[in-house]
Design brief:
Shape: elongated
Order of helices and strands: EHEHEHEEHHHH
Helix content: 40-55%
Radius of gyration: 24 Å
Structural class: alpha/beta
Number of domains: 2
CATH architecture of the largest domain: 3-Layer(aba) Sandwich
Strand content: 5-15%
Strand order of the largest sheet: 2-1-3-4-5
CATH superfamily of the largest domain: Resolvase, N-terminal catalytic domain
Number of helices: 7
CATH class of the largest domain: Alpha Beta
Number of strands: 5
């Protein structure tokens, strides 16, 4: 049996050290892999896909916590189905779940529902925060690169035939920014 140890964080400024330590303490001979990608979808998670491609009969995918693997029931079910089809199991250390047992499978399904619920609550809170900021008149997003006055100047100069390359250099912005001035 090979234990495939999977660590994941969502952003490049986060670290997997705690996950790695817990996983390697449990399976010192395991094959550890990590990635820095969002867990809200399976898309773009090349390391996870590689593990799912490599895993075989009697092997085990081991994660520290459920949310490091999947944040919705659909993805979790897909991963579990792939593992079952290959004769492999899933172990979640923090929740002491092992899908090689019937109780482990049932408990995993319940946790998946709660993980998705938590993600949906977080999205609702974020949406409410954005709405509140808009109502308060706060500017959301990145600061404008050009003032309205500069945009008028650029439009005028473009009409006179000045090139976007020259204007971009002068204003310290990309040519795409110049093209987007309308």
């Amino acid at each position: 049996m090979t234990a495939f140890l999977y660590g994941r964080v969502s952003t490049v400024d986060q670290h997997t050290a705690i996950q790695e330590q817990a996983l390697k303490a449990r399976y010192p001979e395991g094959v550890y892999r990590e990635e820095k990608k969002t867990g809200t979808t399976m898309k773009g998670r090349e390391v996870l896909q590689l593990i799912l491609d490599m895993i075989g009969q009697g092997d085990k995918l081991v994660v520290w916590k459920l949310d490091r693997l999947a944040r919705n029931v659909a993805d979790l079910s897909r991963i579990v189905a792939i593992l079952e089809k290959k004769g492999a199991a899933l172990e979640i250390i923090d929740q002491a779940i092992d899908t090689s047992t019937a109780s482990g499978k049932a408990f995993l399904q319940m946790l998946g529902v709660f993980a998705e619920f938590e993600t949906n609550l977080r999205k609702e809170r974020q949406k409410a925060g954005i709405e509140k900021a808009k109502e308060a008149g706060k500017h959301l997003g990145r600061k404008a690169l050009l003032t309205d006055k500069q945009k008028l100047q650029i439009r005028s100069r473009r009409e006179r035939g000045e090139t976007p390359t020259a204007l971009a250099k002068e204003y310290g912005v990309s040519r795409a920014t110049i093209y987007n001035v309308n």
